[in-house]
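[recover] target loaded
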Protein backbone atom coordinates (compact mmCIF):
# COMPACT_ATOMS: atom_id res chain seq x y z
CA UNK A 1 0.00 0.00 0.00
CA UNK A 2 2.82 2.32 0.95
CA UNK A 3 4.58 1.59 -2.33
CA UNK A 4 1.44 2.47 -4.33
CA UNK A 5 1.03 5.72 -2.40
CA UNK A 6 4.68 6.53 -3.01
CA UNK A 7 4.29 5.92 -6.74
CA UNK A 8 1.18 8.09 -6.88
CA UNK A 9 2.95 10.93 -5.07
CA UNK A 10 5.97 10.53 -7.33
CA UNK A 11 3.75 10.69 -10.42
CA UNK A 12 1.96 13.81 -9.14
CA UNK A 13 5.26 15.49 -8.35
CA UNK A 14 6.63 14.63 -11.79
CA UNK A 15 3.41 15.84 -13.46
CA UNK A 16 3.50 19.12 -11.52
CA UNK A 17 7.13 19.80 -12.43
CA UNK A 18 6.72 18.78 -16.08
CA UNK A 19 3.48 20.78 -16.48
CA UNK A 20 4.97 23.97 -15.05
CA UNK A 21 8.21 23.59 -16.97
CA UNK A 22 6.37 22.94 -20.26
CA UNK A 23 4.14 25.98 -19.77
CA UNK A 24 7.11 28.24 -19.02
CA UNK A 25 9.02 26.95 -22.04
CA UNK A 26 6.00 27.55 -24.27
CA UNK A 27 5.58 31.07 -22.89
CA UNK A 28 9.15 31.93 -23.89
CA UNK A 29 8.88 30.27 -27.32
CA UNK A 30 5.57 32.06 -27.96
CA UNK A 31 7.11 35.41 -27.03
CA UNK A 32 10.19 34.79 -29.17
CA UNK A 33 8.25 33.61 -32.23
CA UNK A 34 5.76 36.47 -32.36
CA UNK A 35 8.35 39.10 -31.46
CA UNK A 36 10.38 38.12 -34.48
CA UNK A 37 7.63 37.38 -36.97
CA UNK A 38 5.16 40.14 -36.09
CA UNK A 39 6.52 43.13 -34.23
CA UNK A 40 9.55 43.55 -36.46
CA UNK A 41 7.50 43.39 -39.66
CA UNK A 42 5.47 46.55 -39.24
CA UNK A 43 5.51 48.01 -42.76
CA UNK A 44 4.69 51.59 -41.80
CA UNK A 45 7.80 53.63 -42.44
CA UNK A 46 9.64 50.56 -43.79
CA UNK A 47 9.03 51.31 -47.46
CA UNK A 48 9.46 55.06 -47.56
CA UNK A 49 11.03 54.60 -50.98
CA UNK A 50 7.50 53.96 -52.26
CA UNK A 51 5.88 57.30 -52.97
CA UNK A 52 2.47 58.27 -51.68
CA UNK A 53 -0.17 57.24 -54.19
CA UNK A 54 2.01 54.51 -55.73
CA UNK A 55 -0.53 51.77 -55.03
CA UNK A 56 -3.78 51.66 -56.97
CA UNK A 57 -5.23 48.82 -54.91
CA UNK A 58 -5.06 47.07 -51.56
CA UNK A 59 -5.84 43.40 -50.93
CA UNK A 60 -7.12 42.24 -47.53
CA UNK A 61 -8.04 38.79 -46.24
CA UNK A 62 -6.85 35.70 -44.42
CA UNK A 63 -4.46 32.99 -45.62
CA UNK A 64 -7.14 31.90 -48.11
CA UNK A 65 -6.86 35.26 -49.87
CA UNK A 66 -3.08 35.12 -49.56
CA UNK A 67 -3.09 31.88 -51.55
CA UNK A 68 -5.67 32.91 -54.14
CA UNK A 69 -5.32 36.59 -55.21
CA UNK A 70 -1.90 37.66 -56.47
CA UNK A 71 -0.67 41.19 -57.30
CA UNK A 72 1.61 39.99 -60.13
CA UNK A 73 -1.43 38.81 -62.10
CA UNK A 74 -3.29 42.06 -61.44
CA UNK A 75 -0.26 44.01 -62.67
CA UNK A 76 0.14 41.89 -65.79
CA UNK A 77 -3.55 41.82 -66.72
CA UNK A 78 -4.85 45.19 -65.54
CA UNK A 79 -1.78 47.36 -65.01
CA UNK A 80 -2.87 47.70 -61.37
CA UNK A 81 -0.26 48.09 -58.62
CA UNK A 82 -1.65 46.33 -55.57
CA UNK A 83 -0.36 46.16 -52.02
CA UNK A 84 -1.29 42.79 -50.57
CA UNK A 85 -1.86 42.52 -46.83
CA UNK A 86 -3.52 39.11 -46.66
CA UNK A 87 -2.20 36.86 -43.90
CA UNK A 88 -3.29 34.04 -41.61
CA UNK A 89 -5.46 34.91 -38.61
CA UNK A 90 -6.17 38.52 -39.64
CA UNK A 91 -9.78 39.62 -39.35
CA UNK A 92 -11.78 42.90 -39.72
CA UNK A 93 -10.45 44.61 -36.59
CA UNK A 94 -6.90 44.19 -37.82
CA UNK A 95 -7.74 45.54 -41.28
CA UNK A 96 -9.71 48.48 -39.95
CA UNK A 97 -6.62 49.61 -38.06
CA UNK A 98 -4.25 48.65 -40.87
CA UNK A 99 -6.12 50.69 -43.47
CA UNK A 100 -6.11 53.84 -41.36
CA UNK A 101 -2.36 53.58 -40.80
CA UNK A 102 -1.60 52.66 -44.41
CA UNK A 103 -3.63 55.59 -45.71
CA UNK A 104 -1.66 58.07 -43.60
CA UNK A 105 1.64 56.84 -45.08
CA UNK A 106 0.85 55.80 -48.66
CA UNK A 107 -2.42 57.57 -49.39
CA UNK A 108 -5.85 56.29 -50.39
CA UNK A 109 -6.05 53.54 -52.99
CA UNK A 110 -8.53 53.64 -55.86
CA UNK A 111 -9.65 50.07 -55.22
CA UNK A 112 -9.71 47.59 -52.39
CA UNK A 113 -10.29 43.84 -52.61
CA UNK A 114 -11.36 42.03 -49.46
CA UNK A 115 -11.39 38.22 -49.60
CA UNK A 116 -14.47 37.23 -47.59
CA UNK A 117 -14.48 33.86 -45.82
CA UNK A 118 -17.49 31.85 -44.64
CA UNK A 119 -16.00 31.92 -41.11
CA UNK A 120 -15.05 35.62 -41.10
CA UNK A 121 -17.22 36.38 -38.05
CA UNK A 122 -16.32 33.23 -36.10
CA UNK A 123 -12.85 34.32 -35.06
CA UNK A 124 -11.10 37.33 -33.59
CA UNK A 125 -7.75 38.98 -34.26
CA UNK A 126 -5.26 38.22 -31.50
CA UNK A 127 -3.72 41.01 -29.43
CA UNK A 128 -0.32 40.03 -30.82
CA UNK A 129 -1.37 40.78 -34.40
CA UNK A 130 -3.06 44.02 -33.33
CA UNK A 131 0.21 45.28 -31.84
CA UNK A 132 1.55 45.84 -35.35
CA UNK A 133 -1.24 48.19 -36.39
CA UNK A 134 -2.31 50.09 -33.29
CA UNK A 135 -1.15 53.67 -33.00
CA UNK A 136 -0.29 53.32 -29.35
CA UNK A 137 3.28 52.26 -28.72
CA UNK A 138 2.91 49.03 -26.84
CA UNK A 139 5.59 46.62 -25.82
CA UNK A 140 4.77 42.98 -26.36
CA UNK A 141 4.33 41.15 -23.07
CA UNK A 142 4.80 37.52 -22.19
CA UNK A 143 1.68 35.46 -21.55
CA UNK A 144 0.33 35.77 -18.00
CA UNK A 145 -0.21 32.13 -17.15
CA UNK A 146 -2.41 32.79 -14.13
CA UNK A 147 -4.87 34.83 -16.24
CA UNK A 148 -5.49 32.26 -18.98
CA UNK A 149 -8.46 29.90 -18.77
CA UNK A 150 -9.69 26.99 -20.88
CA UNK A 151 -13.42 26.42 -20.56
CA UNK A 152 -13.35 22.90 -22.02
CA UNK A 153 -12.78 21.30 -18.60
CA UNK A 154 -12.90 22.95 -15.20
CA UNK A 155 -10.99 20.09 -13.56
CA UNK A 156 -8.13 20.09 -16.08
CA UNK A 157 -8.10 23.87 -16.11
CA UNK A 158 -7.36 23.84 -12.38
CA UNK A 159 -4.95 20.91 -12.54
CA UNK A 160 -2.77 21.80 -15.53
CA UNK A 161 -1.30 25.09 -16.70
CA UNK A 162 -0.44 23.45 -20.03
CA UNK A 163 -4.10 22.54 -20.53
CA UNK A 164 -5.06 26.18 -19.95
CA UNK A 165 -2.64 27.10 -22.74
CA UNK A 166 -4.00 24.55 -25.20
CA UNK A 167 -5.76 27.04 -27.48
CA UNK A 168 -2.74 29.35 -27.42
CA UNK A 169 -0.49 26.41 -28.26
CA UNK A 170 -2.76 25.33 -31.12
CA UNK A 171 -2.80 28.82 -32.61
CA UNK A 172 0.96 29.31 -32.30
CA UNK A 173 1.66 25.93 -33.90
CA UNK A 174 -0.78 26.73 -36.70
CA UNK A 175 0.95 30.06 -37.42
CA UNK A 176 4.39 28.44 -37.22
CA UNK A 177 3.52 25.55 -39.54
CA UNK A 178 1.91 27.87 -42.06
CA UNK A 179 4.97 30.13 -42.04
CA UNK A 180 7.25 27.13 -42.58
CA UNK A 181 5.02 25.68 -45.31
CA UNK A 182 5.31 28.90 -47.29
CA UNK A 183 9.11 28.80 -47.03
CA UNK A 184 9.30 25.13 -48.04
CA UNK A 185 6.56 24.82 -50.67
CA UNK A 186 6.68 27.99 -52.71
CA UNK A 187 9.14 28.23 -55.60
CA UNK A 188 8.46 31.96 -55.91
CA UNK A 189 10.06 34.82 -54.07
CA UNK A 190 8.02 36.28 -51.23
CA UNK A 191 9.90 39.55 -51.43
CA UNK A 192 8.51 42.69 -53.02
CA UNK A 193 9.88 43.73 -56.39
CA UNK A 194 9.18 47.42 -56.93
CA UNK A 195 6.67 47.09 -54.10
CA UNK A 196 4.76 44.23 -55.77
CA UNK A 197 4.56 40.88 -53.99
CA UNK A 198 5.75 38.05 -56.27
CA UNK A 199 4.10 35.13 -54.46
CA UNK A 200 1.81 33.06 -56.69
CA UNK A 201 0.93 30.08 -54.50
CA UNK A 202 2.05 26.59 -53.59
CA UNK A 203 2.55 23.84 -56.13
CA UNK A 204 0.84 21.18 -54.08
CA UNK A 205 -2.52 19.58 -54.71
CA UNK A 206 -5.19 17.98 -52.54
CA UNK A 207 -4.18 14.60 -51.13
CA UNK A 208 -6.10 11.53 -52.27
CA UNK A 209 -7.71 10.79 -48.89
CA UNK A 210 -9.43 14.21 -48.88
CA UNK A 211 -10.98 13.64 -52.31
CA UNK A 212 -13.24 10.83 -51.09
CA UNK A 213 -16.84 11.70 -50.17
CA UNK A 214 -17.78 9.79 -46.98
CA UNK A 215 -21.26 8.65 -46.03
CA UNK A 216 -21.47 11.37 -43.36
CA UNK A 217 -19.31 14.28 -42.25
CA UNK A 218 -19.22 17.28 -39.91
CA UNK A 219 -21.04 20.42 -41.06
CA UNK A 220 -20.63 24.04 -40.02
CA UNK A 221 -23.31 26.71 -39.56
CA UNK A 222 -22.73 30.29 -40.68
CA UNK A 223 -22.21 32.95 -38.00
CA UNK A 224 -23.42 36.32 -39.24
CA UNK A 225 -22.01 39.85 -39.04
CA UNK A 226 -23.73 40.60 -35.73
CA UNK A 227 -21.01 38.46 -34.14
CA UNK A 228 -17.24 38.48 -33.93
CA UNK A 229 -15.60 41.50 -35.53
CA UNK A 230 -18.58 42.44 -37.69
CA UNK A 231 -18.70 45.96 -36.28
CA UNK A 232 -15.12 46.56 -37.40
CA UNK A 233 -15.94 45.44 -40.92
CA UNK A 234 -18.74 48.01 -40.99
CA UNK A 235 -16.38 50.69 -39.64
CA UNK A 236 -13.86 49.80 -42.34
CA UNK A 237 -16.60 50.04 -44.98
CA UNK A 238 -17.54 53.49 -43.67
CA UNK A 239 -13.92 54.67 -43.95
CA UNK A 240 -13.60 53.31 -47.49
CA UNK A 241 -16.91 54.81 -48.59
CA UNK A 242 -15.96 58.22 -47.18
CA UNK A 243 -12.61 58.00 -48.99
CA UNK A 244 -14.30 57.23 -52.31
CA UNK A 245 -12.59 53.84 -52.65
CA UNK A 246 -14.22 51.25 -54.91
CA UNK A 247 -14.53 48.04 -52.85
CA UNK A 248 -14.77 44.55 -54.30
CA UNK A 249 -15.62 41.80 -51.83
CA UNK A 250 -14.52 38.44 -53.18
CA UNK A 251 -15.90 35.09 -52.08
CA UNK A 252 -12.87 32.77 -52.33
CA UNK A 253 -13.56 29.30 -53.79
CA UNK A 254 -13.48 26.26 -51.48
CA UNK A 255 -12.91 22.66 -52.48
CA UNK A 256 -16.32 21.04 -53.01
CA UNK A 257 -16.11 19.01 -49.78
CA UNK A 258 -15.55 22.15 -47.72
CA UNK A 259 -18.21 24.01 -49.69
CA UNK A 260 -20.79 21.34 -48.83
CA UNK A 261 -19.62 21.15 -45.20
CA UNK A 262 -20.20 24.90 -44.84
CA UNK A 263 -23.83 24.26 -45.62
CA UNK A 264 -25.38 27.71 -45.06
CA UNK A 265 -23.91 29.30 -48.20
CA UNK A 266 -27.11 31.17 -49.07
CA UNK A 267 -27.21 32.70 -45.60
CA UNK A 268 -23.57 33.76 -45.97
CA UNK A 269 -24.18 35.38 -49.36
CA UNK A 270 -27.32 37.13 -48.13
CA UNK A 271 -25.58 38.55 -45.06
CA UNK A 272 -22.63 39.93 -47.04
CA UNK A 273 -24.96 41.36 -49.68
CA UNK A 274 -26.98 43.12 -46.95
CA UNK A 275 -23.79 44.64 -45.51
CA UNK A 276 -23.03 46.54 -48.70
CA UNK A 277 -26.60 47.42 -49.68
CA UNK A 278 -26.85 51.15 -50.38
CA UNK A 279 -23.07 51.55 -50.87
CA UNK A 280 -22.84 52.48 -54.55
CA UNK A 281 -19.14 51.72 -55.05
CA UNK A 282 -19.21 48.30 -53.37
CA UNK A 283 -19.46 44.98 -55.22
CA UNK A 284 -19.64 41.37 -54.07
CA UNK A 285 -18.19 38.74 -56.41
CA UNK A 286 -18.87 35.34 -54.92
CA UNK A 287 -16.83 32.65 -56.71
CA UNK A 288 -17.48 30.07 -54.01
CA UNK A 289 -20.13 28.61 -56.27
CA UNK A 290 -19.90 25.46 -58.46
CA UNK A 291 -21.54 27.41 -61.30
CA UNK A 292 -18.84 30.11 -61.25
CA UNK A 293 -15.67 28.13 -60.48
CA UNK A 294 -14.68 24.47 -60.67
CA UNK A 295 -14.82 23.57 -56.98
CA UNK A 296 -14.55 19.85 -57.74
CA UNK A 297 -11.07 19.97 -59.29
CA UNK A 298 -8.67 18.67 -56.59
CA UNK A 299 -5.69 20.07 -58.53
CA UNK A 300 -6.97 23.56 -57.72
CA UNK A 301 -6.66 23.14 -53.93
CA UNK A 302 -3.98 22.21 -51.39
CA UNK A 303 -6.37 21.24 -48.59
CA UNK A 304 -10.03 21.05 -47.62
CA UNK A 305 -12.57 18.26 -47.91
CA UNK A 306 -15.71 16.84 -46.34
CA UNK A 307 -15.83 17.72 -42.64
CA UNK A 308 -13.23 20.48 -43.13
CA UNK A 309 -14.36 24.11 -42.73
CA UNK A 310 -11.25 25.63 -44.36
CA UNK A 311 -9.69 25.25 -47.79
CA UNK A 312 -6.80 26.91 -49.65
CA UNK A 313 -6.11 27.24 -53.36
CA UNK A 314 -3.04 25.79 -55.05
CA UNK A 315 -0.81 27.58 -57.54
CA UNK A 316 -2.81 25.91 -60.33
CA UNK A 317 -6.17 26.94 -58.93
CA UNK A 318 -5.01 30.50 -58.32
CA UNK A 319 -3.72 30.76 -61.89
CA UNK A 320 -7.18 29.94 -63.24
CA UNK A 321 -8.99 31.96 -60.59
CA UNK A 322 -6.99 35.14 -61.24
CA UNK A 323 -7.75 34.85 -64.94
CA UNK A 324 -11.48 34.90 -64.16
CA UNK A 325 -11.13 37.56 -61.45
CA UNK A 326 -9.12 39.93 -63.66
CA UNK A 327 -11.73 39.63 -66.41
CA UNK A 328 -14.51 40.57 -63.99
CA UNK A 329 -12.46 43.33 -62.35
CA UNK A 330 -11.84 44.91 -65.73
CA UNK A 331 -15.61 45.06 -66.37
CA UNK A 332 -16.24 46.59 -62.92
CA UNK A 333 -13.49 49.17 -63.33
CA UNK A 334 -14.67 50.13 -66.82
CA UNK A 335 -18.24 50.48 -65.53
CA UNK A 336 -17.09 52.54 -62.55
CA UNK A 337 -15.05 54.80 -64.79
CA UNK A 338 -18.03 55.32 -67.11
CA UNK A 339 -20.35 56.19 -64.23
CA UNK A 340 -17.87 58.61 -62.69
CA UNK A 341 -17.23 60.26 -66.05
CA UNK A 342 -20.96 60.58 -66.68
CA UNK A 343 -21.44 62.13 -63.25
CA UNK A 344 -18.61 64.64 -63.61
CA UNK A 345 -19.36 68.32 -64.07
CA UNK A 346 -18.93 69.48 -67.70
CA UNK A 347 -16.02 71.79 -68.31
CA UNK A 348 -16.88 75.41 -68.70
Amino acid sequence: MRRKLYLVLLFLAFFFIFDRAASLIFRELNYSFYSRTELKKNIFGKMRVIKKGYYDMMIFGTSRTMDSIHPVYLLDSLGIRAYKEAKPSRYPRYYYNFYRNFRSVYGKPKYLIYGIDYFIFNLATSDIHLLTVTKKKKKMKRLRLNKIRNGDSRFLNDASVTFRLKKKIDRTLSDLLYKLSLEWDSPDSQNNVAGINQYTGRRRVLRQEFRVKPSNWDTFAYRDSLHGEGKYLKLLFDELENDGVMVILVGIPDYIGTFESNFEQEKFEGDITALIRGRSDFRFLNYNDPDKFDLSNPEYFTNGGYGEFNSHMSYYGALKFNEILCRDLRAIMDDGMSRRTAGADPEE
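[recover] notes: The CA atoms of residues 240 and 247 lie 8 Å apart.
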